């Protein structure tokens, strides 16, 4: 029988703390990127909106509002932004390292359930970014939907 008293499972976006958390996370992160020897050359020409767009993209993937796809871009456009950037595993690893360091500094939830899902998405997304960055074009539907990431095997946060 269905248990109607079960609390609703929050999205990863809600559990992380909402949009202000994502905007601050990527703002601090790109400050670090621009001060980093390995990543600065890759990002030195990024637009002033870049950090906000990436924050909104990731927030949307994790269950947040559709700010990115409804007014800033699309999954297809995001893929296009990485084409021919010739990213390496060294770039990707430093990107991951700085983002996770920032997440710790801003005290994003550090429960195993949230962090394993968050890390899984970042691993997936950054590896695809590297793959696409070594292509000149991709044969994808321009209307392809945004990816959606959820809690995975744990199914939700540990609520005690
Ligand atoms: C989960 C992983 C990632 C996501 C969600 C993501 C998302 C995005 C988005 C949304 C844009 C477009 C921003 C805009 O509209 O201004 C973008 C552009 C870009 N991304 Fe990523 N990205 C990821 C990983 C990476 C990695 C690992 C690198 C390199 C180490 C990278 C390098 C770039 C570059 C160079 C641009 C173009 C910047 C410019 O406009 O000059 N991305 N990314």
From TrEMBL:
User: Which keywords are on file for this protein?
Assistant: Heme, Iron, Metal-binding, Transport
**InterPro entries cross-referenced by the UniProt entry:** Globin-like_sf, Globin/Proto, Hemoglobin_trunc
The source's domain of life comes to Bacteria
One Pfam family name from the record? Bac_globin
Q: Which residues make up the binding site for heme?
A: 53
Annotated Gene Ontology MF terms? heme binding; metal ion binding; oxygen binding
Among CDD domains, the record links this protein to: TrHb2_O-like (cd14775)
Under which name does UniProt file this protein?
Answer: Globin
Provenance organism: Mucilaginibacter corticis
């Amino acid at each position: 029988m269905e248990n109607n008293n079960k609390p609703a499972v929050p999205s990863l976006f809600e559990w992380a703390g909402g949009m202000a958390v994502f905007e601050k996370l990527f703002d601090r992160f790109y400050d670090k990127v621009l001060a980093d020897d390995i990543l600065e050359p890759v990002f030195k020409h990024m637009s002033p909106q870049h950090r906000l767009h990436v924050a909104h993209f990731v927030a949307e993937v994790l269950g947040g509002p559709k700010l990115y796809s409804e007014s800033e871009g699309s999954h297809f456009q995001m893929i296009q932004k990485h084409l021919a950037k010739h990213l390496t595993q060294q770039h990707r690893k430093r990107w991951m390292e700085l983002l996770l360091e920032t997440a710790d500094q801003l005290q994003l939830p550090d429960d195993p359930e949230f962090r394993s899902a968050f890390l899984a998405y970042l691993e997936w997304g950054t590896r695809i970014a590297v793959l696409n960055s070594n292509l000149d074009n991709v044969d994808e539907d321009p209307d392809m939907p945004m990816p959606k990431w959820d809690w995975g095997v744990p199914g939700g946060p540990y609520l005690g």
